[in-house]
Amino acid sequence: MRLKRLTTLALFAVIALTIFVAESFIPVPVPLPGIKLGLSNIVTLFLLLHYKPADAFYVLLVRIVLSSLFTGGALYLLYSICGGLCCFVAMCLIHRFLQGKYIFITSIFGALFHNIGQLLAACVITGTLGVFSYLPFLIVSGTVTGLFTGLCAHYAQKYLKKYVPKM
């Protein structure tokens, strides 16, 4: 990796990690466990729009590993990796299918598949399919939070694209 590219991706990872930490201080108005906005995904969406999918993947992976170290726990890492990988694959496919348009739709699918990935991890850990009874709540919350995050990414890239370094 060239130095400029590595530095740029490191800065995006820092931004994503900072957003992740800041989001942890935002109280969630819904009293259901595991529901959050996922604002650090704005960076992943931004990278999908302006860089290669591999670049977005590297930043996502660094964010997941470092946030796991900050919040502690191997289980958190497992849930985050499963959710993050499912989310990333879904977003890449939808982004390609929609030819880079409608980033909010890409974000909604990413949120939904993030939830599915975490439920799959929970299913493996608990050894029961009962965790999927939580899926209807996660579909509703994933749609709402994915839409919000996607709209944030849309407006962020709209106003910041002129400042994006070319690699």
Question: What does this molecule look like?
Answer:
With 167 residues, the chain is mostly helical. It is 74% helix and 0% strand. The protein has six helices and no strands. The protein has helices spanning 3-23, 41-50, 53-71, 74-97, 103-126, 135-160. α1 (3-23) packs antiparallel against α2, α2 (41-50) crosses α6 and α5 packs antiparallel against α6 (135-160). The N and C termini lie close together (11 Å). The mean pLDDT is 91.
Quick overview of this protein structure:
This protein has 167 residues and is mostly helical.
H-E string: HHHHHH
Specify the structural class.
Answer: mainly alpha
Return the average pLDDT rounded to an integer. Answer: 91
Number of helical regions: 6
Blueprint of the fold:
Layout (H helix, E strand, L loop, with lengths): L2 H21 L17 H10 L2 H19 L2 H24 L5 H24 L8 H26 L7
Helix pairs in contact: 1-2, 1-3, 2-3, 2-4, 2-6, 3-4, 4-5, 5-6
Q: What brief labels describe this structure?
A:
167 residues; mainly alpha; 74% helix
